[in-house]
Amino acid sequence: MKKFVLILFLSVLTINLFAQEKEIDRLSFTIAWTPAYYGPNNGDFRVDALLPLSFESLIHFKPWRKFSLSSGFGYWRHDWTMNSWWWLSTIYAGKSQRDIYNTIQIPLQIHYHLFKSTKNVDAYFKTAFINEFMFNKTIYYEYDIIDHTDSDRFYTPSIALGIGSMLRTNKAVGILIEGSVGTYLDLDLLFEMYILRIKFRVVLN
Fold first, then answer.
1. What is the Cα–Cα distance from 167 to 163, expressed in whole angstroms?
2. pTM exceeds 0.70 for this model
3. Which of 10, 99, 138, 200 is the most exposed place for a label (fewest CB within 10 A)?
4. How confident is the model over 75-95, as a mean pLDDT?
């Protein structure tokens, strides 16, 4: 009889825990504008390191009350010009170049949620590993006429730490703001530059 009561108790407890987990097992989808600053560690501010044309779309999965996972796709585009060709040691009149970067990102994020109740405000810390696939095209001009072009592509992973908070306007929609700082894992770039990013998201449940 005691064994039966113990088995029944454990069965009820297991069902109850499973039901509680199912209450928080949910998916959400976000669309974000993600401006960033890719700055050098020499302390100089560079306008050309600002990346306003950056967007991201993620799917979020929260299997536990304190932890959630996110992944999806991001995209940023940036172009800048030089009054010379990059390999020339001196500036020659009439020579210039334009670099166009199109980058696809696949981030993998883990969030630690600070509060148990997330009905109105959901604050969290996050860590991220970001796969970046960069496609670069360089156009060389001589007296405003195209002389030749080059293209290249790179894979450069990066890591980031950040904090964010979501304000839920109703059960279906929320507004999220997130900030992070990171660096590339490439040995030539590791800690030589930093990445500041702010994300403004619309969350759909």
1. 14
2. yes
3. 10
4. 77
3-state secondary structure 77-111: EEEEEECCCCCCCCCCCCEEEEEEEEEEEEEEEEE
Is residue 3 helix, strand or coil? helix
| 173 within domain boundaries | yes
The residue that leads in pLDDT, 166 or 163, is 163
CB 39 within 8 A of CB 45: yes
Which residue from 162, 166, 167 is spatially nearest to 181, judged by alpha carbons? 162
Q: What is the sign of the dihedral through the CA atoms of 103, 186, 164 and 197?
A: negative
Structure confidence by residue, pLDDT tens digits, 2-14:
443 333 333 433 3
Q: Which amino acid makes up residue 39?
A: G
Provide the number of structural domains found in the chain: 1
Dihedral sign from CA coordinates of 49, 50, 53, 54: positive
Q: Which of 99, 116, 108, 16 is nearest to 65 (CA)?
A: 116
Using left for φ > 0, alpha for ψ between -120 and 50, and beta otherwise, residue 8 falls in: alpha
Q: What is the pLDDT of residues 125-164, one digit of tens each?
A: 999 999 999 999 988 888 888 888 889 998 989 999 999 9
Domain that holds residue 112: 25-204
CATH classification at residue 186: 2.40.160.20
Q: Is residue 7 part of a domain?
A: no
